Amino acid sequence: MSAMVVAVDVNKYFGPFQALQNVSLEINHGEVLCIIGPSGSGKSTLLRCVNQLERIDSGAIWIDDELVGFRQDGNKLYELTDAEISRQRLASGMVFQKFNLFAHMTVLENIIEGPVIVQKRAKSSVIPEAMALLERVGLADKKDAYPSELSGGQQQRIAIARALAMKPKLMLFDEPTSALDPELVSEVLNVMRDLATSGMTMIVVTHELGFAREVAHRVVFMDRGKIVETGTPHDILTSPKEKRTQDFIAAVLS
Amino acid sequence: MTNIDSAVTIPPAKYSIAHLKHQPRRHYGRWLAAALIILALALIVKAFAQGQIAWPVVAQFFTAPAILAGLWNTILMTICAMALGLVLGVIFAIMIMSPNPVLKYVAVFYIWFFRGTPLLLQLLLWFNLALIFPTLGIPGLFEMRTVDFMTPFMATLLGLGINQGAYTAEVVRGGILSVDNGQIEAAKVIGMTRLTMLRRIILPQAMRVIIPPVGNEVISMVKLTSVASVIQYAEIIRNAQTVYYANNRVMELLIVSAIWYLAVVTVLSIGQHLLEKHYSKSQGRRTGKRTAPAAAEGA
């Protein structure tokens, strides 16, 4: 396996608060990486830096050897234009905690919006693909519904389909089940499990330790803006070495 | 069980009131108010009936060509100035929210200037532009005399439209701010650029917030056009004045104008009411159904 995402010494500040401190991380092609940790530990921020919803203050991130957010010319790094940033964002698909489906569009319109408007592909070829994705997440019958007419679990599955419609190399999940009623969590995790099985590279910020244990190839534990520990699900979730990891796992499982 | 039965079957006589009749409360205050208002109305009607108003003249001029032409110009100007105001409002609202400081402060200045000076003054400035700029144009490309360009119509259109744009910009800005930040992030992550995002995601959702106040502004605009009578734009009041300068029927023609304004505004008010009902309905449909399917699925 070769590295798809490489982050080196990433720092990120929100005013005086340092959200990320010298974070370095590699994610290989086809790997499923789960990031766990207490709230405020910087795990969502790290994810948002990968697709440039946040700008990093120092360090660097590469996706498939392309520098994220900057163009290197000799010894200088030039900030990319908005259009170039938008193009780079196409490498990754993102799923949010709060779904963020476009409220004024139907399910099908939500899914074809990116391919048709951004990628300028023909509607006639996009719609069958969108319908296939809806089949895959089990919601083909909801294609003409508006987001507000769907449950949280259904909305999140649509959000996953919308991200996949852009044919990203990498999927980013930002606490995808945290806003769901407990009984709706499994329908979303099932879709994500399928996706992992199909070989998609995934970075998942989650509180679902069961999902991490079962699906992740590697688990990262973050606390206070730093990566505390990285290892196999068994290493981190069952026999963590660091005290902070042990405390966190104990607190979540209790 | 027996307790309840006994409570029902053996009430003392004073608790059985089923046979008594309900008497509605008397609203003496309402009757008094109505009587006073009818008296006042009667006095006003009497005053107008006995006053020196030639009602046949009102009827005669109600559909006179000059008045109808004025009415048409009023409606035409309302549409044109409002369209210009909306276009400018959207552009300046986007500019004021732009990360580019130059665009932002240009928009701040625009709103500051055109909200800070009276409309009448702005109309006079546009109309008299020839005094300071005798010719208009791009050097070397084309040129024309300002007096030929700045007709009463153009001066009114620029005056009302640009003034309206300053107010509409604030309305549009409020609408844009009402759109959830999550919608913007979702648009970004599917690779939308700023302008595409505005056009496809933000403005369509901001419309719900923007349209009701803009309906209000359209109604204001109908009446604001009357200010243009001072720069000789032939709207309804200007034409009424032209007529009454000739025939001296001042009040009759002003009454004709008032009836036409009321008629136009009434039609627009009904339109605005329907529009608001439509938008509040689509909003209600969306929020109203939010919980129901979730509960159904959970079951």
From TrEMBL, chain A:
Belongs to the ABC transporter superfamily. It comes from Phyllobacterium myrsinacearum. It comes from the Bacteria. PROSITE patterns: ABC_TRANSPORTER_1, ABC_TRANSPORTER_2. This is Polar amino acid transport system ATP-binding protein. Residues 5-249 form the ABC transporter domain. GO terms for molecular function: ABC-type amino acid transporter activity; ATP binding; ATP hydrolysis activity. It holds the Pfam family ABC_tran. Keywords: ATP-binding, Nucleotide-binding, Transport.
Automatic annotation (TrEMBL), chain B:
InterPro entries: AA_ABC_Transporter_Permease (IPR051322), AA_ABC_transptr_permease_3TM (IPR010065), MetI-like (IPR000515), MetI-like_sf (IPR035906). GO terms for cellular component: ATP-binding cassette (ABC) transporter complex. GO terms for molecular function: transmembrane transporter activity. It is found in: Cell inner membrane; Cell membrane. Residues 71-272 form the ABC transmembrane type-1 domain. Keywords: Amino-acid transport, Cell membrane, Membrane, Transmembrane, Transmembrane helix, Transport. Part of the ABC transporter complex GltIJKL involved in glutamate and aspartate uptake. Probably responsible for the translocation of the substrate across the membrane. This is Glutamate/aspartate import permease protein GltK. It comes from Phyllobacterium myrsinacearum.
